[in-house]
Amino acid sequence: MNEFPEYACDYARKLAGRSARFALQVFARGEENGREGGEYGPDPFGETLERPDLPYALKQRFPDRVLVMTSGRCFMNCRHCTRRGILDSAQVVETDAQLAACVEFVNTHPLVRDVLLSGGDILTLPDERVMWFVDAFAALDQIDIVRVCTRAPCVNPSRITYELAKRLGASKKVWVNTQFNCADELTAEAKEAVGKLVEAGIPVGCQTVLLKGVNDTAEDMLRLFKALSAARIRPYYVFMCDPVAGIERFRVDLETAKAIERQCAESIGGLSMPRFVADIPGSKRKVPISELRQMEV
Ligand code: SF4
Questions:
Q1: Per-domain residue ranges for the chain?
Q2: Would you tell me which of 71, 171, 205, 265 could form a disulfide with 138, CB atoms 3.0–4.6 Å apart?
Q3: 123 lines ligand 1 (CB under 6 A)
Q4: How far apart are CA 69 and CA 119, in angstroms?
Q5: For all residues of the chain together, what is the average pLDDT?
């Protein structure tokens, strides 16, 4: 049995039928269960470690941000997911007392100004539950940004309704961070979903993962960045694919990544050009790949 089961909602399955690049992100392969390429282990950022200094299901790696785990489910199990080894056992906030403990933690840590509502995908929860999280943190004066981290605009765009967009926008603090990995994913439905968010006053950013076979040429990336910009999505980061077990087939070597970044930077303006970074365990920031000689573990 696959350790990270294949799962995709109807929309994602249909999109996979039309786009081979997207299908690579949807369908499992036998070799995923091997240990090759797993230098980081199943939990590279210590998200499952017991931390007595942190409330249940709240994670902190950087002083100005906290991540609150809201759901252990997604609309699809992306084959390249860094959290593939921990999603089904993730701690998530479920009770009023747990949420109150997270709010209290933020209250007592005045440097925190940005709360990431993640998981899993927060939009797998009903609207009322989403707003339970958003309102709790948006009410704090010290909080400038409540990030709703969701792949819904890409993999299940009908989840973004006018009603939900209006409620998220009303907080005036929500930013939506999503993930599109190739231009094929910018369908009419996806663009409509993003339009609802933007028209509700919500900035939308995209974190792309550099994936072999999906977007590993400058031409692929430029097509994606232009499509994102045209849909009013700010390309924000391109992440190196983390060396977690089971996703070796997606990894692009550092020199190729640098060449793609350079060619893109020479071809497109800054507003459409994201930062190419690596997320390295223990680092105090996302590290620009231009600073790396090799992927440091
Ligand atoms: S939506 Fe994000 S957290 Fe969920 S499986 Fe995909 S990459 Fe992982």
A1: 10-291
A2: 171
A3: no
A4: 5
A5: 93
Give me the pLDDT at residue 2, please. 54
Q: Domain 10-291 in CATH: superfamily? A: Aldolase class I (3.20.20.70)
Ligand 1 atom having least distance to the Cα of 75: 1
Pick the atom of ligand 1 nearest to 87's CA.
Answer: 3
**How far away, in angstroms, is 74 Cα from ligand 1 center?**
6
Ligand 1: which residue has its CA nearest to atom 8?
81
Residues 121, 98: Cα–Cα separation, whole Å: 18
Measure the CA angle with vertex 47, ends 43 and 48; round to 5°.
Answer: 80
Find, among 125, 10, 17, 33, the residue nearest to 79 by Cα: 33
CB 152 less than 6 A from any atom of ligand 1 = no
Structure tokens given for 122: 């927060």
Q: Which tokens go with 12?
A: 């994602």
Cβ atoms within 10 Å, residue 43:
16
**Which of 9, 79, 88, 151 should be mutated for ligand 1, with most atoms under 8 A from CB?**
151
Q: Does the Cβ of 81 fall within 6 Å of ligand 1?
A: yes
Q: What is the pLDDT of residue 180?
A: 98
Q: What is the pLDDT of residues 131-172, one digit of tens each?
A: 999 999 999 999 999 999 999 999 999 999 999 999 999 999
Question: Which one has a higher pLDDT value, 44 or 270?
Answer: 270
Sheet hosting strand 65-71, strand order edge to edge: 58-59, 65-71, 114-119, 145-149, 174-178, 204-209, 234-239, 275-278, 287-288
